[in-house]
Each structure stands twice: as structure tokens, then as C-alpha cells.
């Protein structure tokens, strides 16, 4: 420990006078969207994914960011609504940008936005913006442009990935897995000018038979007469605050304490991810008539489900088709839905009004028939469902009011959410958000801000958030969320409540040294088995307290080398009738990152050590993966974990990537259970990727 302390002290002394901060460039196509390894930016991604959920391959967020970067907005001509679609930009930000360009004239560089945006926000949104001269003359028809000009705006990209387990899972030698071992992903995308975009992908998971076990394709047209967007095939929808219908949110409750409360992103976009759930398959059209917007959509999709004599008891969203049992459940329930969204938008340099409404109906080909137990007393049953909602987003001065109210017709239940964001000044923002989700509410495609799930049901909560730069280099992010669940569900034996407090402090000692500390305390109730004084067992609500503290030290030694050190401690206490049960866990890691001077080669390596008393005290660690992949791994037990990421640009437009990850457990002889069990205490993952574009 003494040597490590001296090492970091030397880093601070040697490099505190060296600055590697670079001005924002609208031509910065360094590919940050598929590997968030840029000082500050990877911290943003960690905050977004710091939800104590293990996710081995989360690509949806990066996929959506990639689409935004490939089709950048011209900051000099983009409308209020177009800028508001960009993640990390609030209504206050957009208002300030438009007011600045109105007063100062067209921007020549994105650096000028530093007058109205804080440094971190500017660095991130610069990846989605470009500063180009205004052209008030009528636009040339795509087909009247010279062929060379049209060809120069055409792009093509291929992305392939293959992953192997070492050793193989138990499902292969016992014959339960009917397919081959590797996980294989192939995707092709092409764009023609800024108007046409096509995407197609196929994927198979480990143990599946077909290379195209999951397939997806989309064709998108943008800005064609009054049609701002037309999508055929698979697509995303995102309306209001996600209570009625939304494919996926950019942000959930996380370390982004203000931004996470309000939904962001375009209302309609092509679907390009591999998550085999919560997307739409059919056609959708978005049109604009002045201040009026109209979106119509139709979808027919198939889902895996568990069938019963009376219908289906539940839908399965893991997308796995490896065993005979899983294959029997494949695509055996269809969902057909159709609807419209109508909105009114008006923006000035001082005010912004958005009012909208959504109505959609749908039906399953088999009735929903959940198991007859108390937890499903208020669950949806039947074939047909209809949902309607109204939404508002109003900006007046420094106050941004937003909210949505949704009604489930068959369930005769409503849910609502209302929030207020207050920009105290340029670098200080606060938010208050109240949500009230009825226990009977049902919307199959809800994706709302919540503590428990995203289906906008059975929850009431009040959330307070703060984000501030108190002085140069020192940032504070904090939230307090109080919540309760009015009725029981699968994880709660009785109605419960709790609260969640989080404080994150970030301080830049120099341009190259960043320290971040996180403190979080959360209370809730869990349905667990208890034993009374007579020795009888029964399930009851058990109060749970979870506390953790984490510190990061990030040092950029040069333009090529960066080090990151983390230490985290977690404590979980469960209060049973027989007494308290305390579990502790800790984790520490050292990470090194290297980029060659010509940016053709990059390396990222990490070694972690961890020790936890139980899985409840597991430490969740964020990891960069292959291009367009993020991994969040739960570290539990006693052991070590390493990973190595390599990327090399063979030729301009041709890149290869390699990843090796290994977890060594001292406390077990096998890892995993059932067909996923591996007869080793040191399982590994080997991945290779290829990316080609022109």
C-alpha cells in the first residue's frame, strides 16, 4: 500500500502542470460512442449504468448514440425539437443555444457553445452536433445533386462479433443445448445522403442452432416533404415520459441525478439493437405540419411465452432458444397494435410549449391468463388492451414543467408522473418529480421512471435531485427518492416502502487527475423466509439496509496512457425476527489504458480483487467490451477478475478487436447452475470483433 501511495503522489507531482485538454471539435469522430474511454465521458456512462443490475451485453444505449453521431445536427439550423432529441440536452440548454445563435449569429465552431453550456455537457453533445454555415436557399433535390456529391454522402458499415466460453457450459456435454457453442453477431448498415438509412442484423446466442435465431431489419427515410421520418421494419417509439408507450429510455434512475428523471430521444427511430423485446415490427410514419406533429404506427410482433390451457401465463424476454423447452416457447404469442400520437409544439427564445396525446389499441392471439395467486390479483387478463395518455412539457424562464397521465381502458386504472426542473444558474440544476402508478395499470410497452421495474404500476414516489458545479473542477450530484408499493408482488409479501439516498462528489485536482467519491444508502423491504420462536417458517417482509462507498482516482499520465484505481465497500443488513444478518463486501481494481499516437491501436486492461459474504453484498463493476458493447458484472464470493481489450485499425475503415475476461473464484469449485454450470472455478470469455466501414 505504501508503494501505491508513493506512485500516485509522483503522478500528481509530475503531471499536474501538463494539460491535455483539447478544444471541442465538430469533426471529432473518434468513436467514443462504441468505447466510452475518454476521461470524463466513461464516468458518465458508469453513472448511467450504475443500477446494481448485471447485464453482460448492453448495447441499446450505445446503438442509439451511434445513430445520433452518424447523422449529426447542424447547430445553426436545428429546431428546438430536434435539439431536444439529443441526450444530455435539457430544454434550458436548447433555449440557451437558440438564444445565443439568434443574438450572435451563426456559430463558426462548437467551442462557442461554452458560453451557454457547461464543459461536460458540451464535450458530450459535440459528438452529435456540427457547426456549418446556414443555407437559406431552397434545398437541392437529392436526385439533382451531382453523382459525385451524392456518392460522397453514402456510407456502409459491417460489424461482426464472436464469443466463446472456456470451458463449455454443462448444457453441451449433457445434450440439453441443441446448437453450437459460439455466440455470433453480424450487422450491416448503409446510408444514402442524410435521408435514407437501412440496417439488418442476425444473431445467435450460445447453444442456439440457427445463425439467424434473432433477425432484425429496418429501412428509414428522413425529411421527405412533410414526413420527418418513415420507418419500415423494426422501430423504436418514445412518447411523453414513457407511461403509455416507449421502446426504451435513454436514462433510468442513476448517477445522472437530474437528466435521468426526464425522457429524452427521438420519438421515432429505426431499431438496431439485439434485445429481443420491447421493440415494434411493422411501419410507422411521423409528419409535421407547422407546429402540429402527427405519428401513426402499426406493429405485429411475436414473443416467447409460457402457454397454459387457458392462454399464456407469462411472456419471456431473454430470447434464448437453446433447449427443447425453450424452443417450445419460441414465438408462440403474437401481439398486434396500432395507434397515433398527436402533438403541438411552439418555441421562442423565451418559452417552449409542448402538448401531446397518444392513443393505441392492441390484442394478443391468445389470452393473457396469469397464475391465480394473490400477486396477480390486479394483473391484466384477456386479449385486448387499450391505452391513452396526455403529456406536457413547458419551459418558462428557468422552470421546466413536464409530465404525463395515462389511462388503461380495460383495467380502468391510471398512472401519472409530474416533474419540475429548475436551472438555478448555468452550473446548478435541481429537479422535483412525483409519480403515482396504480396497482391495476397495464401498458405492455411502458418504460417509466421508477424504483421497481419500468411498467408504471404499483408505485408511488417523490424524487429530489441536484447537480451542481460549486467551483471550478468540483461537482456534486445527489438525489433522495422515497417510494412505496401499495400492493404485493412477486418479490414483496406485503405492501412495502423505502428510500434511496445518493451523493457523488467529483473533483479535478488538475486537468489530468480526477477524484470521485460515491456514497449511497438505501432501505427497502424484501419478501424472505423467517422463523418464529416456535420454529415455524413463513414468508414475511424483511427490512433491508444497503450501504456502499466508492472512490475512484483517475490519472492521465500522457496523451497515450491513463490509469484508474477504484475501491468500493458494501454493507447489507437484513432485520429478521431472530436478529440482524449482516453481509459485507469489498472490491478494488487497477486499470490501465493505452492509445498509440496515431490512434490505430488501443489497449485496456484491468485486474480486480473482491471478497463478499453473499450475493446480496455483490459489487457491480462496469466494463468496456467490444465495439458497441458494455458489460456490467456482479462480483461475489472471493476471488479475482481480469480483462483485456485490444483494438487495432488495420486499414482506414477496417478495425479488429479482441477481448479476454476471466474470473477466478477461491470459494467454489464450479461456477453457475444447471445447464449454464461450468466445471471450473476460473471461467473465461474470449471475444473477437471486426468492423469495416467506408
What does this structure look like?
The protein has 694 residues and is mostly beta strands. It has a domain at 78-134: DNA polymerase, domain 1, CATH 1.10.150.310. Helices cover 10% and strands 51% of the residues. It has 8 helices and 31 strands. It has helices at 2-15, 41-49, 60-70, 80-84, 91-104, 119-125, 147-152, 324-328, and strands at residues 55-58, 73-74, 129-130, 154-166, 183-192, 196-204, 214-224, 227-237, 268-270, 280-289, 292-308, 311-316, 333-347, 351-368, 382-396, 399-408, 413-425, 428-437, 459-471, 474-485, 496-510, 513-531, 537-556, 561-576, 579-595, 601-612, 619-624, 630-635, 638-651, 654-665, 684-693. The strands form 3 sheets. The protein has a 24-stranded antiparallel β-barrel. The chain is globular.
Number of H- or I-type helical stretches: 8
N/C terminus separation: 49 Å
Q: Helix amount, in percent?
A: 10-25%
Largest sheet: number of strands, sense, barrel closure: 24 strands, antiparallel, barrel
Proportion of residues in β-strands: over 45%
CATH architecture of one domain: Orthogonal Bundle
CATH superfamily of one domain: Tex RuvX-like domain-like
Report the principal-axis shape: globular
What's the β-strand tally?
31
CATH topology description of one domain: DNA polymerase, domain 1
- Provide the residue-averaged pLDDT: 86
Uncertain spans, ≥5 residues at pLDDT below 50? 1-33, 35-40, 137-152
CATH classification class of one domain: Mainly Alpha
